[in-house]
Specification:
- The structure holds two protein chains of two kinds.
- By secondary structure, chain A is mainly beta.
- Chain A has one domain: Mitochondrial biogenesis AIM24 (Double-stranded beta-helix).
- Chain A is 12% helix and 50% strand.
- In chain A, strands 3, 5, 6, 8, 9, 10, 11, 12, 13, 14, 15 and 16 form a twelve-stranded antiparallel beta sheet that branches. A four-stranded antiparallel beta sheet of chain A has the order 1-2-7-4, with no helix packed on it.
- In chain A, a hairpin with a 6-residue loop joins β1 and β2.
- Chain A starts with a strand and ends in a 7-residue tail after the last helix.
- Chain B is mainly beta.
- Chain B has one domain: Double-stranded beta-helix (4-Layer Sandwich), CATH 3.60.160.10.
- The termini of chain B are far apart.
- Classes of the chains: A mainly beta, B mainly beta.
- At the A-B interface, β4 and α4 of A face β13 and α2 of B.
Chain lengths: 224, 222
Amino acid sequence: MKTEIIGREAFQSIKVTLSPGEQFVSEAGKMVRMSTSLTNEVESVKKSGGFLGGLKRMLGGEAFFFSRYTAQSEGEVVLAPTLPGNVGFRELDGTRGWYCAGGSYLGSGPEIKTEPKWQGMKGLFSGESMVFIHATGIGPLVMDAFGTVTEEMVDGSFTVDTGHVVAFEDCLDYTISKAGGSWFNSWLAGEGFVIRFSGQGKVLVQSHNMKEFGAVIGPKLPPR
Amino acid sequence: MQYEIQCAGSFPVLEISLAPGDTLVSEAGAMAWMDTTVDCKTAARGGVGASLKRGILGGESFFQNSYTSSTGGKVALVPGQPGEIRATEMDGQKLMLERGAYLASGPDVTINANFKGLKGLFAEGMFVLEATGSGPMFWNGYGDIHEVQVEGDYIVDNGYAVAWDASLDYNVQRSSKKVRSFLFGDQLVMRFHGHGRVWTQSRSPRSLSAWVFPFRRVKSKG
């Protein structure tokens, strides 16, 4: 299996080349193009580990289906994010896992286990996706991002607006809270919610905030 | 007529230098800036029936601008979506373009709107343009443009194919992508067959609009 980030910084996508028998998994609907020597099977999150029941209704637009690509013979599949920017990429070696936050999970190798982890009611109020995808195992992990992706080393503590977190190592402790003031006031005022990290580990942050961009464009369209 | 793709990278601009007697045709709305010595006229694209304008184009006006200059001048064109601009010197070959990919062309390039009769299949419509003739033709994508050499079969998600050699056949198929989208078109893929090149873009305006959709304000009831 070969994974390659292609394209310019502003519009990156990921090309996965598979040998016969190899597989790759992605969030359903992220495929740009693929060889016909690959099959594309869609699985629900139930099969991949953990049935969330009524929780699915609250996912707010996040597709909770996976596409599994299997190469019958040598072939490729290209996946891309929806918004402009980088693709996040990490090669997991089994020593620690990563949490993909806010819908940033894009794809992973077949040896990577992906478990949805619900963030609870705090996640609901933050306005971001409530489900983090916990990725563990060995192999490539690909993430969606908006803007440029940079890695921050946390040594002690670090606070990030929830909309700017792409992914973080699972050795970090974290809490989701509001930047200041009361819960409901913050929520109504549209104040940012933050993730406070503590411990030692890496955090991938993105330069731009999807929710803020949606809030710029969405209201300009006819109401639904 | 000279051309230069400026700011080459993710946000290029096409700058055309018109000599007296030159004519450039472009998609309506593409003009970004131009010298005052350039004349710009808007006209309906030849041969397009009223029914096309109404239903299939979904309200989009189907006009072209033409630029001339009696003394010479420059005009800069930019497509609606940010992304790569390509220039192809047409010389008798036939190139198919997705509707949004066409940017501009010289006077001896013919652009035919060729609606593939898929109206019965989905309301969105797949609007394909045929480019023939000779001279410069400028086209674009949302994001980067990647070329794929097809030998046999190849699948491109609907919304990502911007141009392809006319030597390629294709059909539109349903795919169980289970994408949560208000656009039925998101459930479709294009299966290309034959020998030729297909050019894909690395982002899809269609996916972007599906993404923005939930951010619209909710109409208050009562």
